[in-house]
Amino acid sequence: MGEIDWIKEVEQRKEALIEDAKGLLQIKSVLDEENATADAPLGEGVKEALDYMLQLGEKDGFIAKNVGNVSGHLEFGQGKEIIGVLCHVDVVPEGDGWSSDPFGAEIRNGKIFARGAIDDKGPTMAAYYAMKIVKELGLPLKKRVRMIIGTDEESDWRCVEHYFKHEEMPAMGFAPDADFPIIYAEKGISDFDLVQKDAIDKGCENEKIEVITFQSGRRYNMVPDFAKASLVVKGESTEIIQKYTDFLKQHELKGQFYVENGELVLEAKGISAHGMEPDHGKNAGLYMAKFLSELPLDGQAKRYADFVIRYFWQDSRGHNLGIAYSDDITGDLTINTGKLSYEKTSGGRLGLNLRYPVTSQMDEIKAVLERLLANEGFALENFSDSKPHHVDEKNVLIQTLKKVYEEQTGQTAKLIAIGGGTYARSLESGVAFGPLFPGRDDIAHQKDEYMYIEDLLKATAIYAQAIYELAK
Question: Distance between CA atoms of 360 and 248, rounded to whole angstroms?
């Protein structure tokens, strides 16, 4: 085989690639368990996106398999070993403030705008076309190439869990779901709730303010950009409104207040960001809790607000909790306060997303937390943990991808460690590989998410060569 001009092969299929990517991006594939059916256990949208990929693959002559309606694969080639390409077609909720339809897949200024453009539908289509190119060129392979498609990556990974119970594990592979050059280490990720266990206050007569409800955030792994609290104020509420206006101004926040059914309702807007670096966002829930903690609240609400502020206000590194830790491979432990809620009738709770370095031990972290919580009237519930992931840089997978990346870009393939978790960690020998090129802004999970068309094409060429080199 002479030298293959990978980018030229991609250019020849550019229009079809963009059209197929648009089709996938136009599906609102957000987890929807409330409307689940036997055929669509995670909701119609994610199932539609899975079917879209499987039908596309079937049409192009790949072996397509639906695995339990939550995952599937597309495969070609011969051989005992499998090279895995792990993608997901579910997306986080679109959120507010977009300048075009979040599922419109509109192209402007050389970018395609949609929820999922960079995470992970654009890259999924790039990897799909990479496989298609290798297949259509009829290149001789010694291994099978299999794209594994998940539909629950943004939540609980039930898709890959189910998939690997029923299907074989690839010998090695990559997930096009993070940054270039190569991500060889990922922090451990744990989600859990802290639930207030105090006796429900009957309240004393002299407090001025009762918190009826307080709500912020929907996902463990996103910084909440909206918070709302409903209060019953005894006497005049003018002073509280003035205080709130000053507070918004002081913290450069947008927000509003109004009276509804005799309750004073406060709203605050923050800035959403991915939970792996909470400091990139502005947590509306923590700001609201900070404001509430400065008011003369009823006892139970006061204890909740004080607890939130004592341990989480302006501390995303676990210092106040006594669990701060850092290592040279993956950096700092981080905590995102992704969900905050309080009901007068049942008390308060917090949903946390904790990401810990590859050399730290989750059982030690958990023990410290449980000791601390016992004295605070809170309990740890709904605990889940995905262990850290680290592939040795001498591994043939990493060496091959380094070579491909350097040949295609002319740049050094530096190895990077991240706080995010990708499907790569479900493989014993797996790394995350693109699609975000160095110097590009990471707009995953944010409003107006986009991918440069140029990057989409460049990534496709890199993936095509990588698939060929790994499978030949």
Answer: 38
